[in-house]
Amino acid sequence: MGAQEVREGFVRLYGAEPEGVWAAPGRVNLIGEHTDYNDGFVMPFALPHIAVAAVARRTDGVLRLHSADLDSGVAELRLDDLAPGSDGNWTAYPAGVVWALREAGHQVTGADIHLSSTVPSGAGLSSSAALEVVVALALNDLYDLGLQGWQLARLCQRAENVYVGAPTGIMDQTASACCEEGHALFLDTRDLSQKQIPLDLAAEGLRLLVVDTQVTHAHSGGEYGKRRAGCEKGAALLGVDALRDIAYADLDAALARLGDEEEVRRLVRHVVTEDQRVEQVVALLESGADSRAVGPVLTAGHASLRDDFRVSCPELDLVVDTALAHGALGARMTGGGFGGSAIVLAEAADVETLTKAVGEAFAAAGYKAPRVFEAVPAAGARRLS
Ligand code: ADP
Ligand code: MG
Q1: What is the pTM for the complete model shown?
Q2: Contact indicator for 213, 346 with CB cutoff of 8 Å
Q3: How far is 111 from 63, CA to CA, in rounded Å?
Q4: pLDDT of residue 305
Q5: Angle at 206 (CA atoms; ends 201, 207), nearest 5 degrees
């Protein structure tokens, strides 16, 4: 849905013009999975899929929220009533952002918000972060808060962690807030230092496909929390603040120190090797070498997520195995896992055969047809009008 449509929707709903229209994208993560809550490295880029919000300020302490994509009508909340854990609906994401801004001492006196999003929900492409960041950016502009992208990302993460109650890392919100068109974002999640890495795969005759399996396994939330707790246990046993502090060169020694803590050993091995893979991909892309060399690194990342971190699922493994069997240069699950999406790096000439093969494999397995689209690095959050 475009800026004009969302603006018109706002007028129909609230009977006045909005003060502006903003957009924030979903993201796909090229490499660096389950590293962001270990202070490690990630490398997402923004998708052309966006959440668009038309917003106007209010002065009476009321927040009105409406999503054009749901049938739930306008939610009306009082700012003074906003409390973590009080809202189990979609409104918790935007309301959580308002709560986090106010908690941080920013003067926000109310808002009317109408939004719509083309980011597929629950597909591991961060529809939730897009929703949070678009609201945060709009309020930052309208209330003249002067916050930078990374600061908005921190507040949005707090909204999701504390207000919504989802213990996610900082990658999604930072990607949505800070990505740039034509680039992947190399992000150090410890201090949020960033580097924009040019990524133009098409110039090399390559394509990056996103395959949305359209499944979400019910236990994803609880398992995410368990992995996170396991990583924290690993860091504590090894006497470091976060697993990011274990250098790749010291991995074997660290694993030996973990003795018979087999589960923790697997988690540690994934995180430390995954950080190394991010650095490898950055080095490859920056060296100007053939980007085909990135493929095997992606595939190695998948094996680590599947075998060591154990967050893949049969549908994701089927995408990866089928793609590789039909000429893909590399493939891996992306996002938290247990469903959601996979990415596939392929020669442009192989895309058609490969897409067909994945569809057929899904049909043969009795799975719902996957949704496949090409991903090109798009712009981060911005004002549209
Ligand atoms: P992901 O971020 O991977 O898409 P999440 O579970 O983190 O998955 O976020 C999905 C949730 O975000 C949905 O359940 C819904 O509450 C909210 N959401 C996403 N898109 C919209 C939308 N267009 N309108 C209202 N709520 C949305
Ligand atoms: Mg999310």
Answers
A1: 0.97
A2: no
A3: 5
A4: 98
A5: 85
Q: Tell me, what DSSP letter sits at residue 290?
A: -
Distance CA 279, CA 308 (A): 20
Q: Measured in angstroms, how far is the CA atom of residue 59 from the centroid of ligand 2?
A: 30
Residues with CB under 6 A from ligand 1: 67, 69-70, 90, 93, 117, 121-128, 131
Predicted local confidence at residue 1, as pLDDT: 74
Q: Which domains does the chain have, with CATH numbers?
A: 3-196+379-383 (3.30.230.10), 200-374 (3.30.70.890)
Give, using CA atoms, the residue closest to atom 7 of ligand 1.
128
Taking a C-beta distance cutoff of 8 angstroms, is the pair 4, 364 a contact?
no
Catalytic residues: 172
Q: Which of the residues in the chain have pLDDT under 50?
A: none
- Residue 362 identity: F
Query: Separation of 154 CA from ligand 2 center, angstroms?
Result: 14
pLDDT at 265: 98
The secondary structure of 116-147 as a DSSP string is EE-SPTTSSS-HHHHHHHHHHHHHHHHTT---
Tell me how far apart the alpha carbons of residues 113 and 52 are, in angstroms, rounded to a whole number: 10
pLDDT in tens, 87-116: 999 999 999 999 999 999 999 999 999 999
In whole angstroms, what is the distance from residue 155 CA to residue 385 CA? 24
Strand (E) or helix (H) holding 61: none
CA of 128 to the centre of ligand 1 (A): 5
Residue with tokens 């009508």: 73
Q: For 37-76, give the DSSP string.
A: GGT-EE-EEEEEEEEEEEEEE-SSSEEEEEETTSS---EE
Choose which residue among 131, 134, 338 to substitute to test ligand 1 binding: the one with the highest number of ligand atoms within 8 A of its C-beta: 131
Residue from 70, 90, 125, 213 whose mutation best tests the ligand 1 pocket (most atoms within 8 A of CB): 90
How many residues are given for the chain?
385
Which amino acid type is present at position 8? E
